[in-house]
Amino acid sequence: MPIPHYNQIAGQDTGRLISISDGVFAVALTLLMLELRIPIMEGIHSDAQLIDLFIARYPKFLVSFLAFMTSGIFWMGHSAQYKHIIICIYIR
Questions:
Q1: What pLDDT is stored for residue 9 in this prediction?
Q2: For the chain, which residues make up each domain, given as ranges?
Q3: Which tens digits make up the pLDDT trace of 69-80?
Q4: Cα distance between residue 67 and residue 15, in whole Å
Q5: What is the DSSP letter of 2?
Q6: Residues 6+ apart with CB under 8 A from 37
Q7: Cα–Cα distance, 41 to 50 (Å, whole number)
Q8: What is the average pLDDT value for the chain, to the nearest integer?
Q9: pLDDT of residue 78
Q10: DSSP 57
């Protein structure tokens, strides 16, 4: 008779761990995007002024974009790693 795996006895699997880590990444990515601010509309009277304001904020947008992409890459790697861990657990 095969020995039951701990996860079968406890009624838990790695899906709960994956869900909480997905939630943590989602909150982190949301907080990164909340730092971006839209220019105040009262001071803008033409499209050229709007473009100038966005160009002035270009470094902030670039840093936010790179941080968002880096976090997304780590999220994808983390997800792929846990898919591999799940396969290894259930093969045993």
A1: 61
A2: 13-91
A3: 999 999 999 888
A4: 27
A5: P
A6: none
A7: 9
A8: 80
A9: 87
A10: T
Taking each continuous run of H as one helix and of E as one strand, the counts in the chain are 4, 0
In angstroms, the CA 89 to CA 8 distance is 11
Helices (H), 3-57: 6-10, 15-34, 47-56
Burial (CB < 10 A; 0-12, 13-18, 19+), residue 57, is: middle
14-33 burial by CB neighbour count: b if 16+ within 10 A, else e?
eeeebeeeeeebeeeeeebe
Whether the predicted pLDDT of 92 surpasses 60: no
Q: Measuring CA to CA, which residue among 48, 53, 49, 23 is closest to residue 36? A: 53
Least confident of 2-11, 32-41, 77-86: 2-11
